[in-house]
């Protein structure tokens, strides 16, 4: 016997035709008369027919506007206090040749975290001097590729790496521009795995002295860099985490780095030119959730930088920041096709029994690992039609052989949902495709750009032949 469905919110079709859907959807997302979702002027039914599902859809105009918005807000604000600022697009969020071009055309440099990301940025035509290379365990090949490309900065992350970069640069008779990554002890981020500035993790060198006193690891590293003629210490780098919605952590990190800068100047006579305050600016994933305001964050950081520099009596440094998720995330939507529908009787914590509808889609944890990895939450809607059916409690799950393959734990979907319907998941532009895998030997979805009523493939869908081509038997 079926138990009554758990009570849910009324209504699943609140939007008037042609009205913007609003956050967390891309700025171009609307609905037409029959309820079909439209992105970049292209209906999702046409997109599914042409490109298949699952598919990563990127609103090019939205991405460009967010990139431009960060650049203008931060550059204008920091110019007002008397210094300059560069914005690096953090390619780890999502990097393709076209997306690297979009970011660079909007005035951003490109931050890479591997040899592969570096190769994509170079393939896009981004000049080496506009690229930075990160990584806590760079290979010699990656360092050499960066040196040969003439990257603007290599962010060094450990004492052994300092020597390796110095030796490889000396062998090639070049001087490598480096930034020293430090850990400032600020805990920030949406999950402990994406909080990256506390000491008990793999990134950076602590600015705090050890238990026996003496120089901190960061000071020791800076002194070593200054001793090597094949290295040019351009600045200090700090990144405190990801999905951060409060500017307080960035302000505290800026103070710590500026104090380290002043200490090194007093100790050695060297005053670094640049301070990189990293990225990690958060976005809203669910309706009503907050997204970072670039203007507000720029104001808070500029005020802190100016205040501490005045307090320390040091000139203002050049500043750089590295937004990634906050540019790519809201611009992306993942489109799925509904397959199996399975009502399950569930007993809640209060002992009440209700029905939960399991909605299986044709992707899952291989194209969005974040719910399984971090417990990340997303919002989805029926995208191909309107429905007047009463909403039911649903759980959107993937097709992988894992009980943890859950795209969305709980949401309301129309009670007349059927196989073949299209489900759109918002705010998947960051860390969907970039963290995608071939688990269960599923092929990775394409990345499709939409703009001005047209679509084009940026990264084609993988095929079974692609998988077999890598298997040498």
Describe this structure as you would to a colleague.
The protein has 473 residues and is an alpha/beta fold. The protein is built from twelve helices and 21 strands. The protein has helices at 44-51, 60-80, 97-105, 115-123, 140-149, 159-171, 217-227, 248-268, 294-312, 325-328, 370-374, 464-470; strands at 30-31, 37-39, 42-43, 55-59, 85-90, 109-112, 131-133, 153-156, 176-183, 205-206, 231-238, 274-276, 318-321, 332-347, 353-361, 380-382, 391-397, 406-414, 422-426, 447-451, 454-459. The strands form three sheets. Strands 4, 14, 15, 16, 17, 18, 19, 20 and 21 form a nine-stranded mixed sheet that branches. An eight-stranded parallel barrel has the order 5-6-7-8-9-11-12-13, surrounded by seven helices. A three-stranded antiparallel sheet has the order 1-2-3. Helix 2 runs parallel beside helix 9, helix 5 crosses helix 6 and helix 6 packs parallel to helix 7 (217-227).
């Amino acid at each position: 016997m079926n138990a009554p469905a758990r009570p849910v919110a009324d209504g699943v079709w609140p939007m008037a035709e042609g009205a913007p859907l609003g956050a967390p959807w891309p700025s171009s997302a609307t609905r037409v008369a029959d309820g079909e979702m439209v992105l970049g002027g292209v209906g999702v039914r046409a997109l599914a027919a042409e490109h298949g599902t699952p598919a990563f859809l990127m609103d090019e105009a939205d991405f460009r506007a967010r990139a431009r918005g960060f650049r203008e807000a931060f550059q204008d604000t920091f110019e007002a206090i008397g210094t300059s600022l560069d914005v690096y697009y953090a390619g780890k969020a999502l990097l393709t040749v076209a997306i690297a071009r979009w970011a660079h055309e909007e005035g951003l440099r490109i931050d890479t975290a591997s040899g592969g990301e570096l190769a994509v940025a170079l393939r896009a035509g981004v000049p080496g001097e506009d690229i930075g290379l990160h990584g806590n365990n760079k290979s010699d090949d990656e360092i050499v590729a960066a040196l040969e490309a003439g990257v603007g900065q290599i962010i060094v992350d450990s004492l052994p790496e300092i020597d390796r970069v110095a030796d490889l640069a000396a062998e090639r008779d070049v001087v490598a521009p480096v930034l020293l990554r430090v850990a400032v002890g600020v805990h920030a981020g949406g999950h402990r795995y994406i909080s990256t500035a506390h000491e008990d993790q793999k990134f950076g060198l602590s600015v705090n002295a050890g238990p026996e006193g003496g120089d901190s690891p960061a000071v020791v590293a800076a002194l070593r860099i200054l001793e090597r003629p094949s290295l040019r210490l351009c600045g200090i780098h700090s990144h405190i985490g990801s999905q951060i919605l409060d500017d307080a952590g960035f302000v505290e990190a800026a103070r710590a780095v500026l104090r380290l800068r002043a200490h090194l100047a007093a100790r050695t006579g060297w005053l670094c030119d640049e301070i990189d305050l990293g990225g990690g600016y958060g976005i809203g994933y669910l309706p009503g959730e907050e997204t970072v305001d670039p203007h507000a964050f720029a104001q808070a950081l500029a005020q802190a930088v100016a205040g501490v520099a005045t307090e320390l009596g040091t000139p203002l440094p050049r500043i750089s920041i590295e937004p990634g998720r906050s540019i790519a995330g809201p611009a992306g939507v993942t489109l799925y096709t509904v397959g199996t529908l399975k009502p399950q009787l569930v007993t809640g914590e209060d002992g009440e029994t209700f029905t939960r509808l399991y909605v299986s889609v044709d992707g899952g944890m291989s194209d969005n690992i974040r719910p399984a990895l971090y417990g990340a939450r997303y919002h989805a809607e029926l995208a191909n039609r309107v429905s007047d059916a009463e909403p039911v409690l649903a759980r959107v799950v993937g097709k992988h052989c894992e009980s943890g393959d859950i795209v969305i734990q709980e949401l309301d979907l129309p009670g007349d949902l059927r196989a073949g319907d299209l489900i759109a998941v918002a705010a998947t532009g960051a860390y969907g495709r970039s963290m995608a895998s071939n688990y269960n030997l599923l092929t990775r979805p394409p990345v499709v750009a939409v703009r001005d009523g047209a679509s084009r493939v940026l990264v084609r869908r993988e095929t079974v032949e692609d998988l077999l081509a890598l298997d040498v038997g």
